[in-house]
Amino acid sequence: MNILELIRSPWEWYVAGPMIALVMFLMLYFGKTFGFSTNLRTICSMAGAGKVADFFVWDWKAQKWNLTFVLGAILGGFVAHQWLMNSEEIELSAGAVKSLQELGFSNVGAQYLPSEIFGTAALSSPKGVFILLIGGILVGFGTRYAGGCTSGHSISGISNLQIPSIIATIGFFIGGLLMTYFGLPLIF
């Protein structure tokens, strides 16, 4: 197996897990907390949103380091999509494939992002725009109401043994299961 094949294949839990733990240890050591949603507050504060809402009045300069993470996530996603994507189909159970096809999804397992939700046709349809708009509002409200996003609570908060993060993570899983089994069939 050459290095490109190694990079393109999914990393095992015993490699990825300790890498996440190492990053969390380093962040704790340097007194930083991890969470992606803080970047939205930082960007809005930089743009002057503090003139409109007190929530955005804070020392955003102390969070400039976190913007590097955003840039890395964007660049990393671009590099992964352009050069590191595995061309093999996604391994899904027969039951998952059947359920998704019954909901109207085509080419199940052939791509990571279904074109029925993320394709240009979906973005130009009222239903597609509505789904993305409502989803964005719900995620934004939930992130603000929970005091952080899934990555912040589930990775950083739990590693700090914060009870609110454990409760929030349980809520994320319950919400995801409810949406999967009850919400998606209503939408599609």
Tell me briefly what this model is:
The chain is mainly alpha-helical.
Poorly predicted sequence stretches spanning 5 or more consecutive residues? none
Q: How does the major sheet shape up?
A: none
Query: How big is the Rg?
Result: 19 Å
Alpha-beta content class: mainly alpha
SS element count, helices: 10
Give the SSE order as H and E letters.
Answer: HHHHHHHHHH
Amino-to-carboxy terminus distance: 41 Å
Helical amount: 55-70%
Mean pLDDT: 85
Write up this protein.
It is a single chain. The chain has 188 residues and is mostly helical. The chain has ten helices and no strands. The chain is globular.
What characteristics describe this protein?
68% helix, 188 residues
How are the SSEs ordered, and which strands pair?
Layout: H1 3-8, H2 13-29, H3 38-46, H4 64-84, H5 94-102, H6 115-118, H7 120-124, H8 126-146, H9 150-159, H10 163-187
